[in-house]
Structure formats: structure tokens, C-alpha cells
Design goal:
Elements: H1 10-22, H2 25-32, H3 36-50, E1 55-57, E2 62-64, H4 66-86, E3 98-103, H5 109-123, E4 127-132, H6 139-145, E5 150-153, E6 162-170, E7 172-177, H7 189-194, E8 196-200, H8 202-208, H9 210-216, E9 222-227, H10 233-239, E10 244-247, H11 248-254, E11 260-264, E12 272-279, H12 286-307
């Protein structure tokens, strides 16, 4: 039987879209406010219409078939167009229901998410957020497919259908424990070359592009210890003679809880840009816009707090 709008229930496409994004029937049911059997029944009806299994069992949920992967972008685009045309001009957060999936490196999360979660708790009880690891091999494709709603990263994405908004620009500093035995006074290149560094795994190291910029200037560093997240650095630096290179705003964040000091870099390195990336078609989506604005405002408020001069007593 040929599939036409006459015999197609659009609710089936809504279910398909959420299952495709979440890759999990139970999670999709929770996001949709449906029972798991109801979601499975909807998928069964769509399978019959499209004559394809659409999703197969995977190790952690379900995996889309080739047919599902092919139609997913079109389904997502169609639903977004309908939603944008029918959505009210103002967003009613009290009744708004949505599950957002975000890519966010670990240093951003404790800065950007608490204000957003407080806003959700007060005004948007049916909104949920899932933060995913920054270890994504092709997050731009996932944004296009609707698997990811937006990504916060340290590098911009260049593509006409992708929007990249700079959250902030910052320089890099070298951080070491207070009273480091090898750092006396102003840090110079000779001392820099003798220090033992803690560094990020290559996948994350590339985001900061520090290694490339140092190599371009003929500067080498002793990479002694490798970690898979930036938040692993502070306790290791505080308790050893290891040093690290981090964005200045991150040093301000960790300096409150760790006996760590920042030293200006003894060479000129390009500033780092923190960016937010999303699909251009979501620009006018009221819920998506609400999330973006809250994330940006949270980071801006944090930076303002860091640069605020202490009041005189």
C-alpha cells in the first residue's frame, strides 16, 4: 500500500523522530509521555506502512536501519516546519514538553547548566536535558540528523546549514600548585621547557589547538600524564609538580577550590573561542531559542562575576 497523507498518522512520525534521536524505546516513551507498549505499537504501525523494520535491537537500545537513516532528516524537517507554523508566538513554559540533547565538554557543565536547571525547576517542569560526552566523531552529522539539539565547543563549525555563535573569547594560562619548586618569579621559556605537563587526550587536545600552536613556534613541552577531561587536572596539579595549560576562565573557576595559581604564558598563543553550534533551521524554534538564550546568559553571567572587582570594606 502506497503511503499517503490520507493513511499516515502524523503522530507516528513524532514517535519515529523521538526514537531516532534517543535510540531507546523506554527513553522515548518517557519523553513523549507515553507508555512503552504504546510507542512500540506506533512503531509497528509505521513499519507496516513503510515495509521496513526501521529500528533493530542494539547493545544499548535500538539502532536505525538504512531506511530510517534516510528518512530521518526529512521527517525532522517536516515536523519542525509544522511546529514553527502552529506554535504560539510566545512559549508557555508551564505546559511545554521537550527533551533536549546537548554536547558539552566537562568544564562548561557546572557553569552553564545550574542556572538552566533552576529555570526548568521553577518554570518548565516538563523540560528535560541530557548532556552527552564531547567524544563525538561526527557531531555535525548528528545535529543535522536531529540526534543532537546543539553543541558547546571550543572550535567553530563551518557549514551553511549550521549556526555557530561565539560565547566568549579567552586567553590561555599555565596553572601550577602554589609554591611550585621550579617556578621562581616570572615564567620564561627555559623554565617552561623543563616542566612536567598534564595534558588532555588527543581528541580533546585538538579542541584547544595548544599543541599545534606551540609546535608552530618551536616550543616543546614534556607531556608526562594524560587525562580524558579538564576537571581531572586541578587535583592532580595541586597534589604534584605537574602543570597544565587551561583557558583563563577555567582557572578562575578552579582557583576557588584548589591551591592553584595562574602564570602568563611565556609565548604568544591565539585566543580560544567558546562556541555554541546548532542547525540553522532551529533558529526560530521557540523552545530551542529559549534553551540557547539561557545557556548563553549563564556563561555571560559567570564571566561578568569573574571580572567584577571586589567591593572595598
Amino acid at each position: 500500500m502506497a503511503v499517503t497523507l490520507k493513511n499516515l498518522d502524523l503522530n507516528l512520525l513524532v514517535v519515529f523522530d523521538v526514537v531516532y534521536a534517543s535510540r531507546n524505546i523506554s527513553r522515548a516513551a518517557e519523553q513523549l509521555g507515553m507508555s512503552q507498549p504504546a510507542v512500540s505499537n506506533a512503531l509497528a504501525r509505521l513499519r507496516d506502512l513503510l515495509d521496513d523494520p526501521l529500528f533493530l535491537r542494539g547493545r544499548r537500545g535500538v539502532e536505525p536501519t538504512m531506511k530510517a537513516t534516510q528518512i530521518a532528516p526529512t521527517v525532522r524537517e517536516a515536523l519542525q516546519m509544522i511546529n514553527q507554523q502552529l506554535a504560539p508566538a510566545s512559549l508557555d513554559l508551564a505546559t511545554y514538553r521537550r527533551h533536549f540533547r546537548i554536547i558539552m565538554p566537562d568544564p562548561f557543565e557546572p557553569i552553564m547548566m545550574p542556572p538552566v536547571l533552576r529555570e526548568i525547576s521553577k518554570h518548565a517542569p516538563n523540560v528535560t536535558v541530557e548532556v552527552l560526552s564531547a567524544f563525538r566523531t561526527d557531531f555535525i552529522r548528528e545535529i543535522r540528523d536531529g540526534v543532537i539539539d546543539l553543541a558547546c565547543h571550543l572550535f567553530p563549525a563551518a557549514s551553511p546549514d549550521i549556526v555557530t555563535e561565539t560565547i566568549c573569547e579567552t586567553d590561555l594560562v599555565l596553572v601550577a600548585r602554589r609554591g611550585h619548586p621550579r617556578i621562581k618569579g616570572k615564567l620564561d621559556l627555559a623554565t617552561f621547557a623543563k616542566l612536567d605537563f598534564i595534558v588532555l587526550v588527543p581528541e580533546l587536545r585538538e579542541m584547544l589547538s595548544t599543541a599545534v600552536n606551540l609546535s608552530a613556534q618551536g616550543v616543546k613541552r614534556r607531556e608526562v600524564y594524560t587525562v580524558n577531561k579538564l576537571w581531572a587536572m586541578p587535583p592532580m596539579i595541586e597534589r604534584t609538580d605537574l602543570v597544565g595549560i587551561v583557558p583563563r576562565w577555567f582557572h578562575h573557576e578552579i582557583a576557588r577550590n584548589f591551591a592553584i595559581v595562574a602564570h602568563p604564558m611565556p609565548m604568544n598563543l591565539p585566543s580560544q573561542h567558546c562556541s555554541m553550534t546548532w542547525l540553522a533551521k532551529n533558529r526560530l524554534d521557540p523552545g530551542h531559542k529559549w534553551l540557547r538564550e539561557n545557556l548563553s546568559n549563564a556563561f555571560a553571567a559567570h564571566l561578568k562575576k569573574l571580572t567584577r572587582k571586589p567591593e572595598r570594606k
